[in-house]
């Protein structure tokens, strides 16, 4: 009986921690009723967008770069190869929006094993202004995109980020990705930010040039396999904080496959394990699978039906995730609770895989986290 009550208490603690993370995310990620106006002293901004291939909703996401309600900004698109199919799309968008200063830079600089970072270096060097945003090509920028990033900048800030908010799914696997991105990953990132241990997220990063230059410049981000992990370490070493925007920016997903979801999750997990192993260690407790299994075992020892005990735990946790999605007006369908269940069945496998495997393929590039096998820079 002592073991049973110890397990029951452990389950209760994990459920409470999950619900606290939901409460923090709800508090810190409220959607705005009206767009933010530009600040009176709006500094000029450079936006650097690395591009590779044709993403779903490509013209919409890249085209949103030209529709920002901000007085002084430029857009720099970076493409590694001139024969990339996204080049004609970018050329058409630049020609159609002559009122917004925009350039296309073709050709990368190999400073690391990370092709995205290599693709950003020349854009960073070409940026005219001291405030620079690095934004992925599949981010859909709202009209007040720059204002919301700037609004999160505080006196002790070294970097402002936004994780992706999955939106516009066109099949069930895209909805599964939303189950990962929104009420799981975004929730825990807001929770970390809420307790002062925020991490960088490479999807959207607002830098002040002098801060990154003091840490060695953009080439210093080659110190880690992932540029956002390196960014986190640069900012923390400067004694500064990483802040998040008030609500994440959309990433339209379109159609996905289960393989897409799986490959992306194991890649991210392997990189988190490599770059922040002590923070990755307790991730097995962050989903609903562990408290559900512990709750089922404790329930069985106490004379209750284990399946009903697990179902009760999942019902409480998924109610919290549902409340988070609804309060933020994020995408939510009747299938989402079932997809939460599938996600939580996948997470322990992803976790174990991350400890056992070091290699992955990203956009056709083979990458490894074994130091001695990394390409020299």
Description:
- With 377 residues, the chain is of the alpha/beta class.
- The chain has two domains: 2-26 and 276-373, no CATH class; 39-163 and 201-256, Spore Coat Polysaccharide Biosynthesis Protein SpsA, Chain A.
- The chain is 48% helix and 16% strand.
- The protein has 13 helices and eleven strands.
- It has helices at 2-28, 58-63, 86-96, 115-126, 145-151, 172-194, 209-214, 227-237, 258-275, 277-280, 289-301, 306-328, 336-356, and strands at residues 45-51, 73-79, 102-106, 131-135, 157-162, 164-169, 204-208, 241-244, 249-254, 359-362, 365-368.
- The strands form three sheets. It has a seven-stranded mixed β-sheet with strand order 3-2-1-4-7-5-8, sandwiched between helices.
- A hairpin with a 2-residue loop joins strand 10 and strand 11 (365-368).
- Helix 1 (2-28) crosses helix 6, helix 9 (258-275) crosses helix 13 (336-356) and helix 11 (289-301) runs antiparallel to helix 12.
- Mean pLDDT is 92; it is low at 372-377.
Helix and strand layout, with pairings?
Blueprint: H1 2-28, E1 45-51, H2 58-63, E2 73-79, H3 86-96, E3 102-106, H4 115-126, E4 131-135, H5 145-151, E5 157-162, E6 164-169, H6 172-194, E7 204-208, H7 209-214, H8 227-237, E8 241-244, E9 249-254, H9 258-275, H10 277-280, H11 289-301, H12 306-328, H13 336-356, E10 359-362, E11 365-368
Parallel strand pairs: 1-2, 1-4, 2-3, 5-8, 6-9
Antiparallel strand pairs: 4-7, 5-7, 10-11
Helix pairs in contact: 1-6, 1-11, 1-12, 6-12, 6-13, 9-13, 11-12
């Amino acid at each position: 009986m002592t073991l049973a009550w110890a397990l029951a208490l452990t389950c209760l603690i994990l459920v409470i921690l999950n619900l606290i993370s939901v409460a923090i995310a709800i508090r810190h990620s409220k959607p705005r009723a009206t767009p933010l106006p530009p600040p009176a002293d709006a500094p000029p901004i450079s936006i650097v967008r690395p591009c590779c291939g044709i993403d779903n909703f490509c013209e919409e996401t890249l085209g949103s770069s030209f529709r920002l309600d901000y007085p002084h900004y430029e857009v720099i698109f970076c493409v590694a190869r001139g024969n990339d199919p996204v080049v004609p799309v970018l050329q058409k968008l630049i020609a159609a929006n002559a009122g917004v200063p925009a350039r296309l830079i073709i050709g990368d600089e190999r400073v690391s094993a990370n092709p995205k970072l290599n693709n950003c270096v020349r854009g960073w060097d070409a940026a005219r202004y001291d405030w620079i945003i690095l934004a992925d090509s599949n981010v859909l920028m709202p009209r007040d995109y720059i204002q919301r990033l700037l609004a999160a900048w505080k006196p002790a800030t070294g970097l402002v980020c936004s994780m992706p908010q999955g939106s516009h799914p066109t099949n069930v696997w895209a909805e599964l990705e939303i189950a990962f991105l929104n009420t799981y990953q975004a929730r825990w990132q807001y929770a970390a930010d809420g307790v002062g241990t925020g991490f960088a997220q490479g999807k959207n990063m607002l830098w002040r040039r002098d801060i990154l230059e003091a840490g060695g410049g953009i080439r210093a981000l080659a110190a880690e396999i992932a540029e956002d992990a390196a960014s986190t370490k640069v900012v923390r070493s400067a004694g500064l904080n990483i802040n998040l925007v008030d609500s994440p920016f959309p990433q339209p997903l379109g159609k996905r496959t289960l393989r897409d979801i799986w490959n992306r999750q194991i890649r991210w997990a392997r990189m988190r394990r490599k770059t922040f192993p002590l923070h990755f260690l307790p991730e097995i407790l962050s989903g609903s699978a562990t408290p559900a299994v512990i709750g089922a075992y404790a329930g069985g020892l106490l004379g209750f039906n284990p399946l009903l005990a697990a179902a009760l735990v999942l019902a409480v946790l998924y109610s919290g995730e549902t409340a988070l999605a609804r309060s933020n007006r994020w995408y939510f369908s009747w299938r989402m609770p079932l997809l939460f269940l599938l996600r939580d069945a996948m997470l322990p496998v992803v976790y174990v895989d991350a400890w056992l495997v070091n290699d992955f393929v990203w956009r056709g590039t083979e990458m490894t986290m074994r130091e001695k096998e990394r390409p020299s820079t």
